[in-house]
Amino acid sequence: MKKRCFLMWVMMAASAGVMAQKEGFGYKFYGQVRTDLFYNSRSNSETVDGLFYMYPKDVAPDADGKDLNAKPDGNFYTLYTRLGVDVTGPTLGKAKTSAKVEVDFRGSGTTYSLFRIRHVYFNLDWGKSALLVGQTWHPLYGDVAPEILNLNMGAPYQPFSRAPQVRYRFTNKNFKLTAAAIWQSQYLSVGPSSNEAGAVTTVKSQSFMKNGCLPEFYLGMDYNRPGLLAGAGVHVSSMSPRTESKYNDNIYKVSERVTGVSAEAHVKYVHRRFLLAAKSVLGSNLTQTSTIGGYGITCTDSRTGEQEYTPLRVSHTWVNMMYGSKFRGGVFAGYLKNLGASKSVTGVLGTGTNIDQLNTLGAELTYNRPNWKFGAEYTWTGAWYGDYTDKARVTNTHLVKNNRIVLTALFQF
Description:
Layout: H1 2-14, H2 16-19, E1 26-40, E2 44-47, E3 52-56, E4 73-77, E5 82-92, E6 95-104, E7 116-125, E8 129-137, E9 162-172, E10 175-182, E11 189-194, E12 200-205, H3 207-212, E13 216-225, E14 228-239, E15 244-247, E16 250-253, E17 258-271, E18 274-284, E19 293-300, E20 307-311, E21 313-324, E22 327-340, E23 347-351, E24 355-369, E25 372-388, E26 394-412
Antiparallel strand pairs: 1-4, 1-5, 1-26, 2-3, 5-6, 6-7, 7-8, 8-9, 9-10, 10-13, 11-12, 13-14, 14-17, 15-16, 17-18, 18-21, 19-20, 19-23, 21-22, 22-24, 24-25, 25-26
C-alpha cells in the first residue's frame, strides 16, 4: 500500500506539466510540513500514540494502591505533514466542475507513517446550488471549528470526522441550505463484539452502519454575511448493533437497531484581527465523531438474547476567542455533560460512558509569517468519573486532571 501511494504521487508530480496542458483543466498543488512536540502530565484516552488527544484516563490503582495512569508522557511527530491537489475541470452541462485529493502520513489504527486519505471528492457547481460527492468534513464538523494547535480541533467537544458523503447545498443571498447523506470510513461507530468464549467487548467497526443499510442524514441552514456565520442543523443516524446473538450456547438470527437524533448550533464572528466562534451539540450516539457516548440496553429477549437499545445523550459546547495577526493569541473553553438515557438500561456500550462531565481550558500564542507558523499551547482538562445509575447517568464522581503542552512548527506551501 505504501509503495502504491508513493508511486501515485511520483507519477502525478512527473506528469504535472503534461496534465496542466489539458484544455479546460487547472491544477494547484499545495501542502504543509508540520512538526508537533507534546507533553502530558497524565495518561490519556487518545489515538496516534497521544498526538490526537481526548481526555485523561480514570484512576487505575495497582496492588499497592498507586495510580498506574498517574504518569507523564510525551513525543515528537511529523505525521500531519500533508500533500494535496485542487483540480478545476471543464463544464459539465451548465455545472462548473472541480475535485480535491488530499493525503497525510497519519496511517490508520496503530499503523503510522503511511499515506492516508483526508479529502477526496468531486464537486458540481451550478451557481446557487452545488453537489459534492466523496470524502470531506462531516457536516457536524461543518464550517465552524476552533482555531487551536491541538490536532483534535476541539474534540470531544467539537465533532471531528471526515466521511464519505453525498452533499447538496443551495445558496440564496445570505442563506445556505445543506443536506447530506453520510457513510463511515476512517471514523467509526462503537458497538458490541463477542469473542470465542462469549465475552462481549466494545469495538469500532463499519459493520454496524453497513448492517443497518442506512447512511446518516444531516439537514442544516446557515446565515452568512461578511464577518458573521450562524446556523443550526439536525442529524439522524440509525445502525444495527448485531445481526446474530450467541445466547445460552445457541446462535440466533436477530434484528436490532438503535436510532439517534442530534442537533447543533454554531456561530463565528470575525472583525479585523478578532475572532469569536462557538458551537453547541446535543448528541445522541455520536461515537463516530470522536466524542463520548453510545447507547444502553433496555431489554433482552429471554429465549434468543435479542436486545433493544436507547441512545445515550451528551451535551457538548465550546467557545474560542483569538486576536492578532503576526503574533496571535487566544483561549479555548469546552464543557461536556453526560445526560444518560431516557429509559432504564441494564448495560451500556460506547466510549467514555463512565464520565459525568469534562472541562477544558486552553491558551495559545503563535508567531505567523508568510508560509510559516510557530506556536505554543497549554491545555488543562478535568474529567469527572463515577458510577452508573439505572439510566446511565454518572454519580459519586471524582476529578482526574491532565496538563498538556504542545509546541508546533508549520511550513505551508
